[in-house]
């Protein structure tokens, strides 16, 4: 897929564990894991906002468009 999720990178940079983030933003660890792996079809803006607030980052720090990565 041309959209690459970099949530795991931001978690490492901020030294935050997935469980801590999931608890702080009110989603399950399973859903956060799916988001980290890029296996979701979409993400709510409220969830994205909560992640950015907790990790003190911008949405562009979490997701990236990489041309040529499409899986057609």
UniProtKB/TrEMBL annotation:
InterPro entries: Cro/C1-type_HTH, Lambda_DNA-bd_dom_sf. It comes from the Bacteria. Residues 19-62 form the HTH cro/C1-type domain. PANTHER family: DNA-BINDING PROTEIN, DNA-BINDING PROTEIN-RELATED. This is Helix-turn-helix transcriptional regulator. It comes from Sphingomonas caseinilyticus.
């Amino acid at each position: 897929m041309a959209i690459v999720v970099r949530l795991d990178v931001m978690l490492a940079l901020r030294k935050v564990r997935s469980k801590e983030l999931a608890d702080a933003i009110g989603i399950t660890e399973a859903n956060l894991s799916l988001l980290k792996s890029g296996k979701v079809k979409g993400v709510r803006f409220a969830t994205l906002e909560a992640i950015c607030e907790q990790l003190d980052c911008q949405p562009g720090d979490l997701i990236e468009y990489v041309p040529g990565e499409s899986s057609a």
